Amino acid sequence: MTTQYSTNVVEGMQALYGKGFLSPGGAEEMAALLEGVDLAGRTVLDVGCGLGGAAVMLVGTFGARHVTSIDVAGDLVMRARETIREAGLVGKIETQHVTPGPLPFDDDSFDTVFAKDVVCHIPDKSALFDEVARVLVPGGQVICADFTVPSGPKAAPHLYKAWIDAMKAYGLTFHFENLTVYEEAFGRAGLGPPCMKDDTVRSLDAARREVAWVRGPEAGILREALGEEMFARRIDASMRRLEALAGGGIHHTHMLARRLTKTD
């Protein structure tokens, strides 16, 4: 499976999000997501590795002993390998191109499963977290950051649907869900109740910076790579994300949970 990410597009996105990152927030969000989390000496499964920036930080910044990074896009896995080589971490980070479906790992294989802005692309959250729990050791932790749909009287579903439509026009598909769907999926999988932190304010600030960047002169490399029509769609998608976050149509949430043990 390949993606739309040409060399110029990748360079443009990294200019926006930072070396090794294709998703919003980059290293800044990694620091916020992993604040207070101890990964020293642990084995980590990095789901949806993209360009490998998260994996490099999991080892180089946060002290993981070994990271296995997977992605369904083979071209991104190849690019991640280059990021890892440049960081001098080939011996500590393994990359694998996988197909959608069950994870190709034995039970109880990892101390931690990490997923940053990946689960929102997967329709069946329950099936994924069943697999996450299976490959975790008892007591192991899952660390997940994702865009989620708020509920209640202030919810604005038209805003997140507008973002979905804009991203579909750009070539990416999202499957947003309410936090209740995540909580239920965690529980059915044998994961404990997740500790949740609302990251929307920080994500909103990142969205504002993105809009300023794509509308400014530094985005020329992205314009050249995409062409005028696709570049206009990229600007629209960035604007719709900003509107969704600012208007309450979407939230950004950090979730941490552990696989239950027999004594829990």
Characterise this structure.
This protein has 264 residues and is α/β, with parallel strands linked by helices. Helices cover 45% and strands 18% of the residues. The chain has 9 helices and 7 strands. The protein has helices at 7-17, 26-33, 53-60, 74-86, 125-135, 157-170, 179-189, 200-214, 220-246; strands at residues 43-47, 66-71, 93-97, 110-116, 136-148, 195-198, 251-258. Helix 5 links the parallel strand 4 and strand 5 (136-148). The radius of gyration is 18 Å and the shape is globular. The N and C termini lie far apart (40 Å).
Number of H/I helices: 9
Strand order of the largest sheet: 3-2-1-4-5-7-6
Helix amount, in percent?
A: 40-55%
- The helix/strand order is HHEHEHEEHEHHEHHE
> Low-confidence segments, ≥5 residues, pLDDT <50?
none
User: If you compute it from the alpha carbons, what radius of gyration comes out, rounded to the nearest whole angstrom?
Assistant: 18 Å
Query: What overall geometry do the principal axes of the alpha carbons give?
Result: globular
Q: Strand tally, please?
A: 7
Q: What is the end-to-end distance?
A: 40 Å
**Helix/strand/pairing category:** alpha/beta
**Beta-strand proportion:** 15-25%
Mean of pLDDT? 92
Summarize the main sheet: 7 strands, mixed
